[in-house]
């Protein structure tokens, strides 16, 4: 009987331990379910974060791409504002770099926007660029014509031709850099070629205005001096015209680097 009671005590202890083990297993199972739940949620959150980071990176790249494209339009607007400014000077140090930026903007827009929009953009810019011709005309006329057409400044034909070339050549450094910019771009854009043609015509008109009276006076003088010697008249006339043509070509090269058929 004592043995039975002793064994019953062990059985009760074993039942208690078994109950504790079962309770522990239930707790472990509950913990495992909670762990799996948290792990699943954590994984989902991690994937969502990675997706958000990816989308953020794509949005940043897209924003930078848009900003880069908009920079050409913003730069064009700034250039347009400067071209409209009454204080703009084509002889300023910043004008040529601004012109290079304008070329980049036009090149980009021409490859990324519709033809009609490009025409409007170009039209606005070229209307400003035609002001170069006006500047060229003012430079030549103010620097040369008003003084050279003063009769008191030209005592005779020889002095007249010397004055016409020396004074006219003095205006070359003020416009040559600007003309070179037009010449460099004239082969790529027809609008620049049009501006260059107008500058050529303006130059030739000024030369004709200045030289016309003196050439006519010299021809009349040669005719009166050799009215009976036609051979001498031809020789003198040809020598005079060769001298004028050579001087004109040399003077032209002081202003321009590219030839023009209008000079022939």
Task: Tell me the number of structural domains.
Answer: 2
What profile does the largest beta sheet have?
Answer: none
Q: Quickly count the helices.
A: 8
Please bin the fraction of helical residues: over 70%
Q: Determine the strand fraction and express it as a percent band.
A: under 5%
Shape assignment: rod-shaped
* DSSP summary, beta strand count: 0
Helix/strand/pairing class, anyone?
A: mainly alpha
Order of helices and strands: HHHHHHHH
- N→C terminal distance: 144 Å
Evaluate the radius of gyration. 44 Å
Mean pLDDT: 78
Unreliable parts: 145-149, 151-155
Membrane topology: Peripheral membrane protein
Keywords: Coiled coil, Golgi apparatus, Membrane, Protein transport, Transport
Domain Conserved oligomeric Golgi complex subunit 3 C-terminal: 162-260
GO biological process, one term: intracellular protein transport
Search tags:
Conserved oligomeric Golgi complex subunit 3; 264 residues; COG3_C; mainly alpha; 2 domains; COG3_N
